[in-house]
Amino acid sequence: MSAREKQSPAAGQGAGEMMVKYGKEYDVDPLVLLSIAGQETQYGKAGIGVNGMLGVGAYDSDPNNATRNPQFSGIENQIRRGAETFSRLREKGGSSSDASISSLEKTLICGSSIFIGIKLEGSILLFNSLIESVYDSLLE
C-alpha cells in the first residue's frame, strides 16, 4: 500500500488542529476524537467518508444523514459536534474530563459505536498524517 493510499482524505484540511480546538472547548482529549474518527470511518476513508468522519448524525436507518444534513456534514461540523456529543455522553454516564483515558475501564457509548476499555498506555502510534497533525498540535 502506498503512502497516498494510507493517508486520510482529511489530511491537510486542518482536522488535527480542529480536534485540538474543539477538544479544548468541550474538555475532550483530541485523541478520543481521533479514535472515534478511526472507528467510524477509518479517518474518512470508509463508509460515509470524510464529510461524516466521526459518524455524528449517521443513524443506522439513515447513515447518509451525516453528510446530507448541513448541521452534521463536513469535517469541522463532525469534529465540533463529535466533541460536544462525547462531552455530553461522558457527563451523562457519570464520568468527567478528570478521569484519565488510560484508566477508563467502562463502556462509553458514542453514536452507534461502542468503545470498551480505551487504553493508550502512554504511547501514541502515528497511523497517518491526520494523527501526526493532532500530535503536533498537542505539542505546541
Summarize the structure in words:
- Helices cover 44% and strands 6% of the residues.
- The protein is mainly alpha-helical and 140 residues long.
- It has one domain.
- The protein has a two-stranded antiparallel sheet with strand order 1-2.
- The relative contact order is 0.20.
- Mean pLDDT is 74; it is low at 102-129.
What order do the SSEs take from the amino end to the carboxyl end, as H and E?
HHHHHEEH
Q: How many domain units?
A: 1
Number of helices: 6
Query: What value does the average pLDDT take?
Result: 74
Strand content: 5-15%
Low-confidence stretches at least 5 residues in length (pLDDT < 50)? 102-129
Straight-line distance between termini: 31 Å
Radius of gyration: 14 Å
Strand order of the largest sheet: 1-2
General form = globular
Largest sheet: 2 strands, antiparallel
The SS-based structural class is mainly alpha
Helical content band? 40-55%
Number of strands: 2
Compact description:
The chain has 140 residues and is mainly α.
SSE layout and pairing:
Layout: H1 3-6, H2 15-26, H3 30-41, H4 65-68, H5 75-92, E1 107-110, E2 113-116, H6 129-139
Antiparallel strand pairs: 1-2
Give the tags.
140 residues, mainly alpha, two-stranded antiparallel ribbon, globular
